[in-house]
C-alpha cells in the first residue's frame, strides 16, 4: 500500500540527519496521498539508522492507523492539521534545527532580510503566538497545527509562498510540494536563520530587504515568470 | 569482574568524541553496579583511541581501586559523590563541551526556554555557586560533587528530573539511568545551551517558557502518562 | 571548444561544496578566454553531483550561448559585466556563504581588521549600495554587475587589489586570476567575515588595522616586493 | 640530518589541518635541536598535502638555511626569536585559527575564565601591543618575535606557564616542550577562545575565575604536585 510514497517519505526522513538538521530522533517527515487522503509518516522515537520504508506508518486524516505495526510520530496530529488547512501541500517536516529554534525561543519572526530568503520564502517567516493553557492541555499536537494555521490566517499569509513557520518556544515546521521539497525548505529555513541571526547582530536597523528585491528573487524562481533553472 | 558494565562504560566513553563533546581527553563516563556499590570509570588522561573495555577501572564508593592497572579519572571522587547522593542514577558524564562551558563560565543557569529543553530537563539547568577556597584546597574533586549536591538540595531540584548541572567556571556534569543515557543527556544539554545562547542574544525578555508547555513536553516523555516513542 | 577552460571551470565549481561555501545549487564559477572573449560558466540550477566538464556552457560577452545544451547560470549577466569592467580578471565566483551574507544583509563593509584579511584584500571589502527599483526591474542580473562596478569606481578601489564585494542584501562575488584563484578568494572572504564578525562583537572600537600593517601583509604576498612562498 | 626531528615537525604540521586549525597554508610548526641550535620548520607556502618530512627546512639561529631545497616559512624569524628568548621551549606553532584571531583583532587578552583554560594556561593569554611603524618596516617577522617577548617581559609572564600569545591584529603563536605539544596548546587556545567568547557575550561581569581555582587546575596538571594522568 502506497509503496512509492513510503519510499519517498523514508528517503526524506533519512535526509534530515544527512543535512545536519536533527540529533537523535528529533525530527519527522510525512507525505500525503491526496487522492485517498492518507498520510505516510515516520514512526515515533525510532532511530534513523533503524528506519526502513516498510516501517513508515499510514494514517487517515482522523489520525487512525490504517497500516503499520508501529505508533506514528507523536507530532502526527500537527501534520494532519496542516494537510487539512493547506490544500496544496504534499509533504511536511518538523525538526529542532538549532538556528531556527533560536528564533522560535526568542519568539520573533525571521525577517526577509536577503535574497537567500527571498529565493524560497516570499516574506517574513512567522512565529506563532504562544499556545494557551487550554491549547496545551487538550489535544496538544492537534492544537499546535491549529495555532500554525491561525497564524497564517490572521496575517493572511499564503502557505504556498511562505512554506514554513516557527512554533513559539518550540521549533520549525516546513512543508512543500513533496516530502523532499519540504526537507529542502527546512534546510533553507535553517540557513537563513543562521545568516539573519548574524546580520541582526551586526546591525538591526532596516533588517528587512526592499520589497522590489524580494519580489524579484521570489518571482524569478516561482510562478509563471520564473526563469531560474533548466 | 563487571564485564558487562565495563563494556557499557567503554562504549559510552567512546561515544563522547563521536558526538563532538570532547577534545583530547577532556571527558569521562562512569557507571555503577548498585548491588555491589562498585563504580566503573575511564582511566585518567588516556586517549580515546587507546581505550578498551578492560582498561576501565573499578573503584568502591570510598574511591579505593578494586580492579584495574591504571589510575581512575581524576574526577572519580566527583562521580562518587553524585552516586551517593542521587540514589537512582546509574551513569555519570563529565565533559568540557563548549556551549555548556560558556554558560558555566558566565555563571548563569540555562533557562528552560523551549521544548527541546523540556523534553529532557524539567526546569532550568542550574549552575553551582563558585567553590570556596577551602573547598578547592582540600579534596577538590569530592567537594565538587558536594557543591553539585548542595545546589540541588538548596533549590529543591529533583536530580531525576534535571539530570545535569553546570559547575561554576568549569563545565557540565550529567547523569542518567545508564552510562549511555547519561551521555544522551550530555548531548541534549550541549544542544540546548547552543539554542538558548542564540535565543538570549536575539531577545532576553521572557526567555523562560510557560510552565504549562514545560509540563506538557516533559511529561509526554517521562512518568506514567508518557506517550512518546514505541 | 575551450576544453581546458571547461575542465578548470568544472573543477572550480566542484570545489565550492568541498570548501563548505554552498548549499544545494547556491553558487557558480565562471572563467574567461580573454583572446576570444568567451566565458565558460556553470549551467543554471544543476546539482553539483550531476555536473561534468562538458555540461559547462559557453557564452559570449553579449550573453549569447555559443555552445552547450543547458541554460547558463542565471547570474551569467553579472559575471559578464565584471569581466567587461575588470580587464585583468579571469575567473568569477558567486556564493551565498553564510558569514559573508551576514555582512551583506547588514549592509556593512568587512573592515580590514587583521593580517588574514590583509594577505589577500588590500583594504575593506565593500558592500554595494542597495539596488534601486529600476535596476531591479530591468536586466536585474546585468544591473547587479553594474552596481558592483559602480561601487569600485565611486570609491576608486582597484579590483585587482580587492578581489571581492558584497552585494547589498544578497551576498559575495569574488574574482581572480583564474577560476580556482577566484574560489580561493571566496574561501578567504568567508574566513575573514567569520573572524571579523566575532572581533567586532568583542570590541567595535578601532576595528580597522593600521595602514602600515595592511601594507606589509598585502605587499609581502603581492607585487614586485613579494617574498612569501617559493 | 636531524631525521627524527624532521619527522616530528612534519607530523606536527600535518596535524594542523586535522584539528581544523588551518585553511590553505595558513600555519606552520617548527622544532628545535637545543644541542646544535638548529631549527626545523615548514617550507613557505607549500600545501599540506604536498608536504613530506624531507621537505622540512633546517635553519640556524641567525636564519641561515643549513639544509633544504625550499625557502623556510616566512615566519621563521619569529620562531627564532621565541627560541632565543624562551630557553625551555622546543616547538613553536603559528596559525590563523578563527576564534583566537577574533581576540587578536579585538586587541584583548583571553581572560582565564574557566578550568579548561586553567588546565593549560596559568593566567590570561596576552595580546601584544600593536606593532609600531618602524617594527613593521624593518625585519617585520623578527620584530614580531621581539614584540611577543616584550609582552612577556613587561608583564613578567613565564612563557612556560602561559605557552601562547595573540599578536595584535594578527593571530596566535603557541609553543611547548615539543612540536606536538605546541600544537596541543594551539588546539587548547582555540577551544578556550571559543568558550570564553560566548561566556563574555552572556555576561561580561567577573569574567576572570578565582585565583584559587586557577591554581588548583593548573597545578594538578603541572609541576611537582601534579596528579592528573597516569
Automatic annotation (TrEMBL), chains A, B, C, D:
Its EC number is 5.1.3.4. GO terms for molecular function: aldehyde-lyase activity; L-ribulose-phosphate 4-epimerase activity; metal ion binding. One of its GO terms (biological process) is arabinose catabolic process. It catalyses: L-ribulose 5-phosphate = D-xylulose 5-phosphate. It comes from the Bacteria. Keywords: Arabinose catabolism, Carbohydrate metabolism, Isomerase, Metal-binding, Zinc. One of its GO terms (cellular component) is cytosol. InterPro entries: Aldolase_class_II_sugar_metab, Aldolase_II/adducin_N, Aldolase_II/adducin_N_sf. It holds the Pfam family Aldolase_II. Its cofactor is Zn(2+). Residues 7-197 form the Class II aldolase/adducin N-terminal domain. Pathway: Carbohydrate degradation; L-arabinose degradation via L-ribulose; D-xylulose 5-phosphate from L-arabinose (bacterial route): step 3/3. Belongs to the aldolase class II family. AraD/FucA subfamily. NCBIfam families: PRK08193.1, PRK12348.1. Involved in the degradation of L-arabinose. Catalyzes the interconversion of L-ribulose 5-phosphate (LRu5P) and D-xylulose 5-phosphate (D-Xu5P) via a retroaldol/aldol mechanism (carbon-carbon bond cleavage analogous to a class II aldolase reaction). This is L-ribulose-5-phosphate 4-epimerase.
Amino acid at each position: 500500500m502506497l509503496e512509492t510514497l513510503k519510499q519517498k517519505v523514508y528517503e526524506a526522513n533519512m535526509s534530515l540527519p544527512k543535512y545536519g538538521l536533527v540529533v537523535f530522533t528529533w525530527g519527522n517527515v510525512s507525505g500525503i496521498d491526496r487522492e485517498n487522503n492518507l498520510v505516510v509518516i515516520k514512526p515515533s522515537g525510532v532511530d534513523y539508522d533503524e528506519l526502513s520504508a516498510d516501517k513508515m506508518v499510514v494514517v487517515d486524516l482522523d489520525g487512525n492507523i490504517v497500516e503499520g505495526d508501529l505508533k506514528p510520530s507523536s507530532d502526527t496530529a500537527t501534520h494532519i492539521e496542516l494537510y487539512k488547512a493547506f490544500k496544496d501541500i504534499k509533504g511536511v517536516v518538523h525538526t529542532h534545527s538549532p538556528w531556527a529554534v533560536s528564533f522560535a525561543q526568542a519568539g520573533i519572526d525571521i525577517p526577509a532580510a536577503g535574497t537567500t530568503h527571498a529565493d524560497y520564502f516570499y516574506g517574513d517567516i512567522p512565529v506563532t503566538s504562544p499556545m494557551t493553557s487550554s491549547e496545551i492541555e487538550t489535544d496538544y499536537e492537534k492544537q499546535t497545527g491549529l495555532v500554525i494555521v491561525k497564524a497564517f490566517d490572521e496575517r493572511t499569509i499564503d502557505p504556498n509562498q511562505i512554506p514554513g513557520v516557527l512554533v513559539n518556544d518550540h521549533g520549525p515546521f516546513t512543508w512543500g510540494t513533496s516530502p523532499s521539497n519540504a526537507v529542502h525548505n527546512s534546510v533553507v529555513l535553517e540557513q537563513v536563520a543562521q545568516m539573519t541571526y548574524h546580520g541582526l547582530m551586526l546591525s538591526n536597523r532596516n533588517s528587512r530587504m526592499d520589497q522590489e528585491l524580494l519580489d524579484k528573487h521570489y518571482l524569478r524562481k516561482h510562478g509563471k515568470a520564473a526563469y531560474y533553472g533548466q
